[in-house]
Amino acid sequence: MSLLAEVRLVAAKDLRIEARSRVLLAQVLPFGAIVVLLFAFALDPDRGVLARVAPGLFWIAVLLAALLAIGRAFALEQAHGARDGLRLAGLDPASVFLGKAAAIVVQLLVLEVVLGLGVVVLYGVDLRGGAVLAVAAVAATLGLASTGTLYGVLAAGLRARETLLPLLLLPVLAPVMLGATRAFEDALDGATADAWPWVALLVVFALLYTGVGMLAFGPLWEDA
Amino acid sequence: MNTTAAAADARTRLLPKGLGRTVDALTLVAIGALVVFGLVIAPPDAVQGDAQRIMYLHVPAAWAMYLAFFVTTLASVLWLVPRTRSMVWDRVAGSSAEIGLILTGLTLVLGSLWGRPIWGVWWAWDARLVTTAVLFFLYLGLLALRAIPADPNVRARRSAITALIVFIDVPIVHFSVNWWRTLHQEATVFNPELNPQIEGTMALTLWIGVLAFTLLYLALLDRRYRLATLEEGLAERELDAAIEARVTAGAGGAA
């Protein structure tokens, strides 16, 4: 089987499980929405702060929801010896990595669209620079998913995984948070020329950690 | 595993005993010299006054921090390369990361103590400060991971890979934070902390500081390494004792 076929197989498996269990749709997505709502309580909607800081709030909400999605992606390998089954399936570890990351990307993109609409409506944001927003979101999501899959498998077998995953992942994602927020801010301000360098940073980050993930996933997956 | 690797694994001291003692003694001498030079001999700064003396600790601590994290990275690579794989490198990587984290904390605290009288604030969103703070949390995560008990080989592999993931992130964090703070902020009052035209006694004091912290790092690394081997030995002994207790209990029941 080619790498691509294997990747599609793993991604389709994870997405099929999500389609049947609806954990992301029924739990993670509402969690992100309530975070968006809570920011309005914290920052007083009448003072116009929300619209100004909307990009940052949006990405924090996405980041928090992504932690849950990543935890979920490996929790579902826990039941019924699924992990051993997948390990014994004779797939290239790199394609398992890419497949799981791809499934996370798809789920996070759905989440981002819904939360994005919520932010636009609730915070009163004027949508501008759609192309930059879309490219930046995809690049940031690729970075999130690649590092998330890498740390997800690392933490998967550990007893303290729920608390360890955020501690490991959030500092590494600091550049993604910074780049995605700045790119969104610049795009919404109509300064698309300023946004592209940040998008480039996000792309570099995503490529780098996808490469690292393809190499490092194998040994970590064996130990998990 | 071949015999030389097994012998290396059993290595209980990083530095030979005599060399370790020498490093300890030199460290004490260098710290003594730093105290005398930093507090007495070096003149107070023309602009910053006595607060500038904090630099004699702050800058060397930052240097030793980078050294420590570099050694962690190097040791992690050496563990991952099959030809050089040995538990020695795992212990060195873990010990060095721990010392590096303390040095990072020290750098941040000392910088903050200096910033209060000079900048008027404990903290500023300066690029270097933010990068150092992220660095602190990156390595805090690595140590949290190391603290989780597991089969020694699994733990070593996991830690070595994480150390590399973290290390790759450092330049990206540095670059992005720099970019962020320079794009959105005019040339700040927080210009170079260290006057580049520093000379004479002040430069000498700073170099003594760098030497003292480098030696201190080595001395601490040697001790932490020894502690790591002792911890491993303790775990083994406890296991042996537990097995023996079981065997004795079993024999007693049969009789």
Query: Regions of chain A with pLDDT < 50 over 5+ consecutive residues?
Result: none
Structure annotation, total helices of chain A: 9
- Assembly state here? heterodimer
Whole-number mean pLDDT of chain B: 87
Relative strand content of chain A: under 5%
Instruction: Characterize the largest beta sheet of chain A: strand count, sense, and whether it forms a barrel.
Output: none
**N-end to C-end Cα span of chain B:** 42 Å
Order of helical and strand elements of chain B: HHHHHHH
Task: List SSEs of chain A in N-to-C order.
Answer: HHHHHHHHH
What ranges of chain B have pLDDT less than 50 throughout 5 or more consecutive residues? 185-191
Whole-number tally of structural domains of chain B? 1
Shape of chain B: globular
Shape of chain A: globular
Provide an overview of this structure.
The complex is a heterodimer of chains A (224) and B (255). Chain A is an all-alpha fold and 224 residues long. Helices cover 85% and strands 0% of the residues of chain A. Chain A contains 9 helices and no strands. In chain A, helix 3 runs parallel beside helix 6 and helix 8 (174-188) runs antiparallel to helix 9 (192-223). The radius of gyration of chain A is 18 Å and the shape is globular. With 255 residues, chain B is mainly α. Helix content of chain B is 78%, strand content 0%. Chain A binds chain B through residues 147, 150-151, 154, 158-160, 164, 167-168, 170-172, 174-175, 178-179, 182, 194, 197, 201, 204-205, 208-209, 212, 216, 219-220, 223, and chain B through 134, 137-138, 140-142, 144-145, 148, 150, 154, 157-158, 161-162, 164-166, 168-169, 172-173, 175-177, 179-180, 183.
